[in-house]
Design a protein that fits this description.
Blueprint: H1 2-27, E1 37-43, E2 46-50, E3 65-68, E4 71-78, E5 85-87, E6 94-97, E7 101-105, E8 111-114, E9 119-121, E10 127-129, E11 135-140, E12 154-155, E13 163-166, E14 170-176, E15 186-194, E16 200-211, E17 214-222, E18 225-235, E19 250-254, E20 263-273, E21 282-286, E22 289-299, E23 305-310, E24 315-321, E25 323-325, E26 333-336, E27 339-341, E28 350-352, E29 361-364, E30 366-368, H2 374-407
Parallel strand pairs: 14-20
Antiparallel strand pairs: 1-4, 2-3, 5-30, 6-29, 7-8, 7-11, 7-25, 9-10, 11-12, 11-24, 13-22, 14-21, 15-16, 16-17, 17-18, 19-20, 22-23, 23-24, 25-28, 26-27
Length: 410
């Protein structure tokens, strides 16, 4: 009789634990990146009453006789299914679509892993988790804009006060040079180019007709100062008046402003024609940029690369987010605050970039919602309640049977 009492009491304990897991799942139904837990039972040890016997040539065997002693916890396992991606409109909110974890450092050289990508900028310009302040990890680009993903991880620092400029390397000219012009006639064009510090330089170019289908180019002044350079020759097809690719491109050297060196500019002439109409040759575009300040940044979904966006239209690679994956994510230890640590059964972190090695992609402007299924959890709640209720009935019934036994003395 006492055996059934203790079996029922044991069952009450573990059904209460089952309800605790359900309550935890439902409490975190709106927690970004939260992964629910699945609870399973296993049977408790059984008491052997009779070992049974093997069959003989004349008599059948007898099965062993055992009385079970209740239930126990089988497992409480994290379920790492994908949560729904929810748009927030914040560029600093990122989510993982697929497997993998963001990597955080809490400033004590302790590395954590999380699916929570709600980020913000701290006072030093680092990208940090909005709720914990831990710095998200990755690789910073060098001065040449190259990221070494084989190097050590570091915090991602956004150069808030940085400015960038770019020297002009190519100037693209287009328009017409009048085919009715006399040999020796000239046509002047002024182009603007930038040096490495973003300073604008005005270059006066002079086209001189040197043949039936040929013009020579030379600079006359740069920034209003006489500077004569032979910039090359442009030749046109006599049958069509179109630019002849065999004539190549022109090149000029422009003095840099104070603090920088001289730089060369290639004159791309493929847009020029020689037709019987007034000359209209002019600068179409050039690839230099004036100085500009950082006004924002964006994150590439496929690679996790962070690009700074500048007021002069430039985009420059700032860094790249690192991601980690594990052989057994369910083996990670939950540390609270949406953070995990590896355990003996999770395997070591496989660190790399997004969209490689089984790691998912990064989605900017979204957060990953909890993967808790409310309908399933309410069903589990009913099961836990009924299991608990049944165990209490066993205790009540066992007590009544003991009471009847005690009443035999009356």
């Amino acid at each position: 009789m006492l055996r059934s009492l203790f079996t029922a009491i044991n069952s009450l304990r573990y059904h209460q634990m089952y309800m605790d897991v359900v309550a935890d799942n439902l409490a975190n139904v709106n927690t970004p990146g939260f992964k629910g837990s699945a609870f399973t039972f296993k049977d408790q040890i059984a008491q052997l009453i009779s070992a049974g016997s093997a069959p003989t040539t004349t008599l059948g065997g007898v099965n062993p006789t055992q009385v079970g002693l209740g239930t126990n916890v089988g497992s409480i396992t994290r379920v790492f299914t994908q949560g729904a991606l929810q748009s927030t409109g914040r560029d600093l909110d990122i989510a993982i679509s697929g497997d993998g974890f963001f990597i955080y450092n809490d400033g004590t050289n302790q590395t954590y892993y999380s699916r929570d990508g709600g980020l913000t900028l701290d006072g030093q310009g680092y990208l940090v988790n909005a709720s914990t302040g831990a710095r998200i990890q990755g690789w910073m680009a060098n001065a040449a804009g190259v990221v070494n993903t084989a190097g050590g991880l570091t915090g991602i620092n956004i150069p808030i006060d940085a400015s960038v400029a770019r020297a002009t390397q190519n100037a693209f000219l287009s328009g017409n040079l009048d085919s009715t012009s006399a040999i020796g006639s000239t046509y002047n064009v002024t182009i603007g180019v930038y040096d490495a510090l973003g300073a604008l330089h005005s270059v006066a170019l002079q086209f001189t007709r040197s043949g039936a289908n040929q013009w020579t180019m030379a600079t006359t002044t740069i920034d209003g100062v006489a500077n004569v350079q032979n910039a090359g020759t442009v030749t046109f097809d006599p049958a069509t008046g179109q630019y002849d690719p065999a004539s190549g491109s022109g090149t000029i050297t422009v003095p840099g402003s104070t603090g920088t060196t001289n730089f060369n500019v290639t004159l791309n002439l493929a847009g020029l024609t020689q037709l019987a109409e007034p000359s209209t040759a002019a600068l179409n575009s050039q690839d230099g940029l004036a100085a500009g300040e950082l006004i924002g940044f964006n994150i590439s979904g496929n690679t996790g690369e962070l690009f700074g966006v500048y007021s002069n239209g430039a985009q420059r690679l700032i860094g790249q987010l690192a991601m980690a994956d594990f052989n057994n994510p369910g083996g990670l230890m939950r540390m609270g605050e949406n953070l995990y640590l590896p355990s003996l059964n999770s395997g070591v972190a496989r660190v790399g970039v997004a969209n490689t090695g089984g790691r998912g992609t990064v989605s900017s402007g979204t957060v990953e919602g909890s993967n808790v299924d409310m309908s399933r959890e309410f069903t589990n709640m009913i099961l836990a309640q009924r299991g608990f209720q049944a165990s209490t009935r066993i205790i009540t019934t066992s007590d009544e049977m003991l009471q009847e036994l005690v009443n035999l003395k009356r």
